[in-house]
């Protein structure tokens, strides 16, 4: 057994010394802090965020970050009939999926199934999928055989109001046109209604009229110009005395 040597332990403790200098990080003055911040801004891109303490907002395009307990009205989809072409053309991608029949309310479940169909078809491809709608309409339902006057019911699912000729999904990437057509065909089969495949640069739509060779100003004008001289005056209405005479009398 090795004997204990208290003298060696005491010598080792005596050799230790504590420095008087502080090991903490030195504080920077206001001028030095501004200089370092300006150097960091010059090295980073213009649109990059250095740091943010803001918490990320929950929710996505299939479920917004609002309370589900708030009751909502059914409402109707916006139909652009006054000259607006917003949401009818491909904005960010190269190809798009557009509704062609009439406005309707599509549930988040159907949109999720359509998104999964596109991702399954384009597995292994380099692409990016853009969503042009948001499921921000809460659908509340009551149970079967519920008598009237028992309230609106509880929350059931989220849905999105899609207007006629509105772009719902867009696609961009290193894809062939036929591959994108096939992916959107599968997605359209999963969604209610009729859908069409559109490309970037195609004319917009006002209501149900495509502006292909027709400008918006021409569409707002009357169908034909009629001169005031050619308009015939309306015939006067028959008097009350004439209406009382029988038709068989001359």
Overview of this structure, please?
The longest helix is centred in the N-terminal third of the chain and has 14 residues, at 30-43. 16% of the residues are buried. Helix content is 25%, strand content 18%. It contains 6 helices and 9 strands, in the order ααββαββββαβββαα. The strands form 3 sheets. It has a 4-stranded antiparallel β-sheet, with helices on one face. The protein has a 3-stranded antiparallel β-sheet with strand order 2-5-4. With 250 residues, it is α+β, with helices and mostly antiparallel strands. Residues 228-250 are annotated as: Disordered. Keywords: Ribonucleoprotein, Ribosomal protein. Belongs to the universal ribosomal protein uL16 family. This is Ribosomal protein L10e/L16 domain-containing protein. It holds the Pfam family Ribosomal_L16.
Distance between the ends: 150 Å
**Which class of secondary structure composition applies to the elements?**
alpha+beta
Output the strand order for the largest sheet: 3-6-1-7
Number of E-type strands = 9
Report the order of strands and helices. Answer: HHEEHEEEEHEEEHH
> Measured on Cα atoms, how large is the radius of gyration?
36 Å
Global mean pLDDT: 79
| Tally of individual helices | 6
Low-confidence stretches: none
Morphology call: elongated
Helix fraction by DSSP (H/I, runs of at least 4): 10-25%
Indicate the proportion of strand residues. Answer: 15-25%
Main beta sheet strand tally, sense and closure: 4 strands, antiparallel
